[in-house]
Amino acid sequence: MGATLTIGKLASAAGVNPQTIRYYEREGLFPAPPRTAAGYRQFGPDELRRLRFIRRAQGLGFSLDEIRDFLALRVHDPRSCASVERRVEIKIQATERKIQELNALLKALNGLRAACSARRRTADCPILEALADDA
Q1: C-alpha 115: how far from chain center
Q2: CA 81 to CA 45: how far, in whole Å?
């Protein structure tokens, strides 16, 4: 990889589109890069690493605000890794709650599907009845 990349080459190397990079720039996740005389953005290996960091963190379910905090900790914070670990623990707990909620939703949907074992007219459909029920 050369010393500088255009936004298109950076996007391609990271598996995103250029609009994603511009969005991250607007959101403060990506510093404004230097530009050529013609106005083209110039990115280097550090920006590629940063972009991959952001994408991996998003893939793990972290919000852009959480990622912004991670980036700040990574660059500016002299504290130990324990502060990052606490943030990950919070994300784990939130993920476990979501899994419980999704399991409950799956159970409810399976129950509705089981109630509809016979093919009936839609006017008699137990799924539609359950959704319309006031209880």
Answers
A1: 36
A2: 24
Q: Which residues contact 68 (CB under 8 A, 6 or more apart)?
A: 27, 28, 29
Long-range contacts of 27-34 (CB under 8 A, 24+ apart): 27/64, 27/68, 28/68, 29/54, 29/64, 29/67, 29/68, 29/71, 30/54
Range 120-124 average pLDDT: 69
Residue 68: count of CB within 10 angstroms of its CB: 17
For residue 77, what are the CA distances in angstroms to 63, 65, 66, 80? 20, 16, 15, 8
Contact (Cβ atoms closer than 8 angstroms) between residue 36 and residue 70:
no
Using CA atoms, how far apart are residues 90 and 28, in angstroms rounded to an integer? 23
At residue 1, the pLDDT reads: 45
Give the predicted TM-score (pTM) of the model. 0.72
